[in-house]
Amino acid sequence: MTKGPAERSVVRRPGGRAARVRARILAATTELVARDGIAGFRYEEVAELAGVHKTSVYRNWPDRATLVKEALLRFGEDMASLAETGELRRDLVDFLVALADGLATPTGRALALVAQSGHESAEVRRTVDAILAHRVVAVQRRVDRAVEQGELPPVDGYFFGELLCGPMYLHVLRGPRPFTREDAERITDVVLAGVRATGR
Amino acid sequence: MTKGPAERSVVRRPGGRAARVRARILAATTELVARDGIAGFRYEEVAELAGVHKTSVYRNWPDRATLVKEALLRFGEDMASLAETGELRRDLVDFLVALADGLATPTGRALALVAQSGHESAEVRRTVDAILAHRVVAVQRRVDRAVEQGELPPVDGYFFGELLCGPMYLHVLRGPRPFTREDAERITDVVLAGVRATGR
């Protein structure tokens, strides 16, 4: 819950030295975007926070917009990974917990605000949409698979995603206490039972 | 969906001339807060938008913070009214549709952002919390009544409110198309069926 995006990305993605440097730069960018906004950060700060030389940032991302976009996409991807262990309930609960953890970080909160403000540029809007699309596609794919396997009646994956994620968003962004795994289980259970009972 | 808060309040609350003037002033204040933020509007603008003399505003609300607070509370109250017609499903669907309509207005959207930004003053924060509390209490009261009457198994009204409102919030704030009554019905049906099936 308190782990920063830098730590998350580095932990999750093994690879060579170049890959690790890239991951650190992207994570640092995400943190600075969350703190200062899309237009507010400087390449020097990214380099310092990532612990790399400034030229590493410039060489990999000569274009600032591309850097921001890749950083946010990476963050969104990490946040919305949905495993297929074969056990639907567990996969959904894990997904919801990971999403809540990501959303509770300053970056996640900033992204949620950008997504809703409607005041940002078209470019930013497209990036945020792409991040949200990751989440939607992840849920849809998992739900489609469950439908195929007869674990769920035919259901619109997008609608299912709203049913599952909506209560968690409200809780994380406004609730009086932190979101727990138990909360994720309660929501998942009601949604699964409701979709099965109504057959949609 | 496109009706402004001014119109909503005036339509919904009958009363004498003084009450109508107050309602118009509060509705105008809400609109200006949505446009310019809590600290951005001037009393002159409120008077102009409400079509009243400036002294009517000063006389009724010498204190600016009180004016903002009452305006937002009134807006929140109108937005989150939950009738008891005796038919649970219909009451919940009506509530969800009204909340979605309110949230889709510029004021509703602005309030949602303030509620989540966490950057505002403690005073603003308390006001927004009070508005959200209206909604929560409305759902809790209706759900408690349904439990008493055996229409629902014992369920935590706060949790129920998150299940019901969360998907609608996501849809209104981020969805690709407007929220419809059919959406409200689908959500309500799944939540009712899920709560009944899981017995919580």
Automatic annotation (TrEMBL), chains A, B:
Keyword Secreted appears in the UniProt entry: no
Segments forming domain HTH tetR-type: 19-79
InterPro entries xref list: Homeodomain-like_sf, HTH-type_TetR-like_transc_reg, HTH_TetR, Tet_transcr_reg_TetR-rel_C_sf, TetR_C
DNA-binding region ranges: 42-61
Keywords: DNA-binding, Transcription, Transcription regulation
GO molecular function list: DNA-binding transcription factor activity; transcription cis-regulatory region binding
Gene3D superfamilies (UniProt xref): Homeodomain-like, Tetracycline Repressor, domain 2
Domain of life the protein comes from: Bacteria
PANTHER family: HTH-TYPE TRANSCRIPTIONAL REGULATOR RUTR, TETR-FAMILY TRANSCRIPTIONAL REGULATOR
Protein name, UniProt field: TetR family transcriptional regulator
The organism of origin for this protein: Amycolatopsis cihanbeyliensis
